[in-house]
Amino acid sequence: MIFDNNKTNNYFLFITSVILLSLVVFLTKIFLSTDELLYNFYAEIYVQEQIDDIVERQQKWWWLGYAIIPLFVIIRSSLVAFCLGITVFFYDMENTFKFKQFLRIALLGEFVWVLVAIVKFAYFYWFQTDFDLVAFQQYYPLSFINYLDVESLDSWFVYPFQTINLFEVLYFFILVAGMHKLLKSNYWKSFEMVAVGYGMGLLVWLGLTMFLLLNIN
What is the pTM of this model? Predict the structure, then answer.
């Protein structure tokens, strides 16, 4: 079973999610011409020499975008696993569990974000073929943000509204299923624990992100 206690599962889930995300990033760069989007975006702000310098630096450090992916996956999964573990601790469960067991649940949930990346690529490749860099960055599949006039929003509100989406709901229920399997508790108890642990963690993350964006702007 995917939630069983086996070391191989964690490594397999991590490596597979990183490979898939890297593949989507590669396809996005090639088929959606992100370098051209970047060039067109800066054309309205900088002179030609400055734009060439920016693009040149982007091309020089192209590998950094791929190197960040595994780091991002493990940090995000570890934070979620930490929230789940802390919740179990405060609920005073009779049995003790290892961090790697909560990490496995979070790593399985990573495939939801892989799906998000795939859907976003497909949307701009097959459907919304006429777009700019801002539209590409602000769009989030099946999100509340798509029904708003983004231009009228302060930039620090964009990310929270992007977070209100059906993929986030799917991710939540994957965590619930994983906790239900791990703890062997009733479903609603697992639901409550994920709502408390992951929910509070998400709210803290959103608050921190909004604070940073507000101060940057």
Answer: 0.88
Do the beta carbons of residue 145 and residue 158 sit within 8 Å?
A: yes
Residue 172's CB is within 10 A of a number of other CB atoms, namely: 18
pLDDT for 140-161, tens place per residue? Answer: 999 988 888 777 777 778 888 8
Residues 17-46: b if buried by 16+ CB within 10 A, e if exposed: bbebbeebbeebeeebebeebebebbeeee
**Residue-range domain boundaries for the chain:** 7-216
Determine the straight-line distance between the first and last CA of the chain, rounded to whole angstroms: 47
